[in-house]
Amino acid sequence: MIEQAYDDRDGFIWYDGQLVPWRDARLHILSHGLHYAGAAFEGQRAYDGNIFKLTDKKPERSYTLDEIKNELPSAVATIQFREKYDAWVKGLRAKAHIEYRSS
User: Fold this and answer.
1) Among 15, 56, 79, 93, which residue has the fewest nearby CB atoms (within 10 Å)?
2) Confidence (pTM)
3) For residue range 3-52, what is the model confidence (pLDDT) as tens digits?
4) Are 73 and 81 in contact, with CB atoms under 8 Å apart?
């Protein structure tokens, strides 16, 4: 099954606080929110103007963006460490000589 390209669709999409034609919604490739999920969003389903199960989805505590941003350096450091670790392991595997013998 071939999916339709995301840059060539009919209809509208919510972008930057408003509905815009799908083809006009643009996001820079270096967007921090795209690569590191450094953006906050919340979606709710609504039917006939009523939000579906609003009380079921309400969190016990709300977090401000400042509180979330305080966690980002730690998360980014963890990701960077993992990338370096993976590169190191890949280098070790490239240097390793493994023979398989069958009798």
Assistant:
1) 56
2) 0.31
3) 777 778 888 888 877 888 988 888 776 776 666 666 666 666 777 777 76
4) no
Q: Which DSSP letter does residue 96 get?
A: -
In the numeric block, which tokens belong to residue 79?
């990701």
39 and 33 Cβ atoms separated by less than 8 Å: yes
Provide the residue ranges of all domains of the chain, joining segments of one domain with +.
Answer: 10-36
Find tokens 């972008």 and name the residue.
Answer: 15
Q: Reduced to 3 states, what is the DSSP secondary structure of residue 80? A: helix
Nearest to 43 by CA among 34, 52, 35: 52
The upper half-sphere exposure of residue 78, i.e. CA atoms within 13 Å in the direction of its Cβ, equals: 6
Q: What does R_g of the chain's alpha carbons equal in angstroms? A: 22
Residues 27 and 4: their CA atoms lie apart, in Å, by 19
